[in-house]
Specification:
This protein has 402 residues and is α/β, with parallel strands linked by helices. The chain is built from 16 helices and 14 strands. A hairpin with a 2-residue loop joins β3 and β4.
């Protein structure tokens, strides 16, 4: 079968960011299927246009046919420029899809709902099945974060959400926490295709030694965060915890990635004189193993917003696959997973004192760290390997065409 994915923030393992879709596509291609992606040349992490990519217009990456379509560069410039960026991609992706022939399924993913709407339009134009994937409960998350405030836009977004649920031929989610919400609104039961990891991507060549040497982390207990530095990620709470820990020279907090709040975070670090915090540029997924290998513990953190209790963050599974205990500063379904499989510690969201105490507890308990890390690898292999998830996903796609 031929699957067309509409995804503004699609990244490959050669780029920094979440590679869920690239990895699923890789497994589908190995099974003999064809995957085409329409995406943006604007980096979702930095908001910058990537001119070398834009000139290509299309490319073949690891067997995936990738089309790049026009997108305005307003992702990190405020609410309305961001909205314009979403709309520009929506319209240009619909136009670009006319170049793609003989597809069987159009796969739309959210966030954001506008690209999912583009996928629905394309499915209608080509009279093909529409698969809707929900990766967070947008627009509810945007409303809860205070990003979406305009009453008209809120009502329009909620209408669009209901419309897409109603018109999807099949709905999938990456977290079990989303299923009740979708069922309540649409009456449909979404199928779970959870986040996970490929353990082979986290086998380090040198055990993180080079990274530790480069950043002078020898003999330190390293707590590492990898991913977006945005409003939802609550990294200012992490800096507050670092301030509480500054008297303990054993501890280093390493923040790897980029995002719209990174400059503000660096400024706060400098204002507070936090020499125990390091900011590191984003790293492509194919090179992340040697970076995470340098950590003693991984950190997953989101703001203390009730809706975030529904999420299954990618980074938790990455740390588990790398054999690192997880400091999970997120309540809800991901906390349940961390505690069920004994792969880390739950930390009260928004509480820097609780994070400080959890870091010290792990720093003083090397045997616990080792046990939790081993539990993480075993849990990924048995329950959340990307291969197993891709096989389940392939069955869903095949059933959709029956």
């Amino acid at each position: 079968m031929h699957i067309l994915l509409i995804h503004q923030a699609f990244v490959t393992v050669k780029e920094a960011g979440g590679t869920r879709h690239a990895e699923l596509a890789h497994w589908l291609i190995q099974k003999g299927h064809q995957v085409t992606v329409i995406t943006s040349p604007v980096s979702y992490l930095t908001g910058e246009n990537q001119p070398d990519i834009r000139k290509k217009r299309c490319d073949r990456i690891d067997g995936i046919d990738v089309y790049y379509c026009y997108t305005s560069g307003g992702l990190h410039k405020g609410f309305f420029p961001r909205l314009i960026s979403f709309f520009s991609f929506m319209f240009s992706s619909i136009k670009t899809a006319k170049k793609v022939q003989n597809i069987d399924i159009v796969w739309g993913t959210s966030p954001n709902l506008f690209q999912a709407f583009a996928a629905w339009v394309i499915s209608k134009q080509q009279k093909k099945k529409f698969l809707l994937e929900i990766r967070d409960l947008w627009p509810d998350f945007a409303i809860g974060m205070g990003v979406l405030k305009n009453r008209f836009l809120i009502q329009a977004s909620l209408w669009l959400e209901k419309f897409l649920y109603a018109h999807a031929d099949r709905i999938i989610v990456n977290s079990p926490g989303f299923i009740p919400h979708i069922q309540k609104i649409s009456g449909k039961t979404a199928l779970l295709v959870p986040n996970g990891a490929d353990p082979d991507l986290f086998v380090s060549t040198d055990g993180g030694i080079s990274f530790r040497r480069e950043y002078q982390l020898e003999e330190k207990f390293v707590v590492m965060y990898t991913g977006a530095h945005g409003p939802a990620n609550d990294l200012f709470t992490v800096l507050k915890a670092a301030e509480l820990l500054r008297g303990d020279d054993r501890i280093r907090i390493v923040l790897v990635g980029s995002g719209k709040e990174k400059d503000l975070l660096i400024k706060r670090k400098e204002e507070k004189g936090l020499n125990n915090v390091l900011f590191v540029p984003p790293v492509p997924k194919e090179k992340i193993a040697d970076v995470i290998a340098a950590a003693d513990a991984g950190l997953a953190v989101l703001k203390a917003i009730p809706l975030f209790t529904t999420t299954y963050p990618n980074k938790v599974f990455d740390f588990m696959a790398a054999g690192k205990p997880v400091l999970c500063q997120i309540d809800g379904v991901i906390r349940d997973l961390v505690e069920q499989y004994d792969v880390g510690l739950f930390v009260t969201p928004g509480d820097p004192q609780a994070l400080k105490e959890a870091i010290l507890l792990l720093a003083d308990s090397p045997e616990d760290c080792k046990r939790m890390g081993q539990n993480g690898i075993r849990t990924i292999r048995e329950h959340f390997s990307r291969k197993k998830i891709a096989e389940d996903f392939e069955r869903i796609l095949s059933d959709l065409l029956i």
